[in-house]
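Q: How would the structure tokens look for this protein?
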Amino acid sequence: MKSSYFHLYHLFSNNFSILSYLLTSAVNSIAAKWGLPFSTIGLINFAGALSYITTSLLFGRKGDRLGQKKLLIFATMIFGAFNVLGFFWSNITELFIFAIGLNFFFGTFFPQIEGLLSKREKQIGVDPAATINRFTLSWSAGNIIGMALGPFLIVRYPYITFGYGIILSFVASYILRRDFKKHGESINFRPVNNLKIPSKPIDFPKIGLYRKVYRLTLLLSGLIYSAVLSLFPKVISMNGLPIGLSGFLIVGANIGVLMTFLILGRFKIWVANPKISMIFMVVFPMTVFLIFMPISPLIFFLISLFAGMSYAVPYTYAIFYGLNSQDEDEGKQGGFHEAIIGMIFGVGPLLGSVAIQIANGLTGLGIMALGILSAIASVQIWFVRKIHEKQVIL
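A: Here is the predicted structure in token form.
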């Protein structure tokens, strides 16, 4: 077997991320096309997020006990059949049902992939930072494709979106079944040597504090990111641009995510260094500033770009410290991480929709972002002081 950098499960992560954003943007784009109010779009996303949170917490730990591959085999098979429902959308109720169902699947899928990668790659000596970096690159690259094409395909060629979901899910289930029969829960992978170069030692005695702080920071910063992804199709259409083109502006968010993962994966100076980690979060104030700028297609793209960066920075910290475990509970920790993602995509669109409706425009979202910025700054300053105090005592 040749040494390699990526393997089968990164391919799954990438392709299902494409599908995730094709379907999510399809739901939001159809809601905008039907003229649904911001509050209803927010409620659809909130209902889906509740499903995501529930399944992440429920099935994340199940994977540790039953096996991640086993759960993935059944989940992908069922989701392949579920995608058929997309061909019959005709009312709001069906949008709610589809949003709940797709989030039920992805709330199961991602904790299993995260748990499998972190547990099995650790067994073959891969550096935890390299595991996280390659996983985040694989799904974020998929997001760019899904978000850019989602609104366009659902308006022009909806059968491509749901046909892709059906074929991908059934093919993945078949491949997973074959892989499980040959290799069990292990990953058939020979890593290149540079994946085994260890990064800075992790601060395991304080890792519980790191997890709590960065998960909270991720939750707060992600609210604007999710509001942009779900509400901008309608905001953009209200400003005279076609809904089908909205994805090509909002895709800036996913480009920002990928750029951030590339940078943080290349320069690991943030590992176990809260002060440096806080400096990277300067992208969030930039997002707030751009929201108050005069609206134009370029501004829509830049808001999306910096919102993506603002989400990706704490995402990297949260998943890195979350999945680095000495207790063999990677699936459980992956479930906690994905539950935070579910909260982001539930609460963000809901709060954002209320803020936009109250202020009758993006000013409301900007005011909301200012409040979040104050909370993030307070949490980070407290955290840096707390870590410093402990180091002095020791």
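The chain has a mean pLDDT of 90.

Residues 152 and 194 are 40 Å apart (CA to CA).

Upvote if useful.
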